[in-house]
Amino acid sequence: MSLLFDVVPFANISQVASELVQNWTPIGPVTPELPDNISPFISSFELLGRFNKRDTARALDLLRRTWGWIINNPNSTQSTLIEGYTSNGSFGYRSYRGYGFDFSYTSHAHGWSAGPTSALTNYILGLDVTQPSGSSWSLAPQLGNLNTVEGGFTTNLGKFQASWSRAIQNVTVSWNTPAGTNGMLTLPIYSGSMVYVNGVRMNMGANSTTASFLGETTFSVAVPGGAGNAMVVTRSSLGRRSFEA
Q1: Higher pLDDT, 206 or 183
Q2: DSSP calls for 98-118
Q3: What is the CATH number of domain 126-244?
Q4: CA neighbor of 107 nearest in space, from 87, 77, 63
Q5: The model's pTM
Q6: CA 127, 129, 135, 138: dihedral to nearest 10 degrees?
Q7: Which residue among 3, 111, 165, 166 is least packed, with the fewest CB closer than 10 Å?
């Protein structure tokens, strides 16, 4: 919660993020308040908290070891999400705490376990609304070890869509949002990077900031609604910039 709601002081973020890993097992984090049980609901808050602090690598690790295990488990539905399970992989979630040791109480279609749905949209894709209905929005991709992402949603203003892809450290981002809205684009940059937004090279000096406790640097710029695109290009790949042709 302290990571998600920006309560923890910046100097302590690294310690909090590292200490939480001590709860992890190969199939998800054990909940301290419910020993031997793994709760995708509570784990969703850790997932969102890590993404909020751009702790992307560990967030993706958490997602894969918890929800990946659920989806791929042959005893699961492989389409819906389970309420919870125990650290040995059995589906007797909280059987000793109010469920009378009856495994049949465990739900296999539990909405509270679906934290990655918003996490993947709002943090990995990076598309989110910042004002009602999306009159203002943000696009701040988190790359991790992924190569391409696409998604979106609809409000009463219309469709919000975005995608990104990368090759080495070059990143291409595109978006299409309702006309008349306003966006804030935030891109990860690297040493020697250049940023182009709608074909115009940006002056990055004033708008480049250290974005996370991991030392990641990002560049932010306001963009209008409608269709747009951006590229982050490293100097080492200047000879391959086909968009200049």
Answers
A1: 183
A2: TSTT-GGGS-SS-GGG-HHHH
A3: 2.60.420.10
A4: 77
A5: 0.90
A6: -50
A7: 111
Q: Which residue has the tokens 């090759």?
A: 167
φ and ψ of 85, to 5 deg: -160, 175
From CA 54, how far away is CA 161, in angstroms rounded?
A: 22
Residues 36 and 87: beta-carbon distance below 8 Å:
yes
> Where does residue 221 rank: exposed (0-12), middle (13-18), buried (19+ CB within 10 A)?
middle
Question: What digits encode the pLDDT tens for the residues 2-39?
Answer: 999 999 999 999 999 999 999 999 999 999 989 999 99
Q: What is the DSSP string of 116-132?
A: HHHHIIIIII-EEESSG
Per-residue pLDDT reduced to its tens digit, 85-140 = 999 999 888 777 777 777 777 888 999 999 999 999 999 999 999 999 999 999 99
Rounded alpha-carbon distances, angstroms, from residue 166 to 8, 149, 188, 230? 32, 10, 11, 12
Mean pLDDT for all residues in the chain = 91
Distance in angstroms (rounded) separating the CA atoms of residues 104 and 137: 43
Q: Could you give the CA distance from residue 202 to residue 200 in angstroms, rounded to a whole number?
A: 6
Q: Helix, strand, or coil here: 238?
A: helix
Domain ranges of the chain: 10-115, 126-244
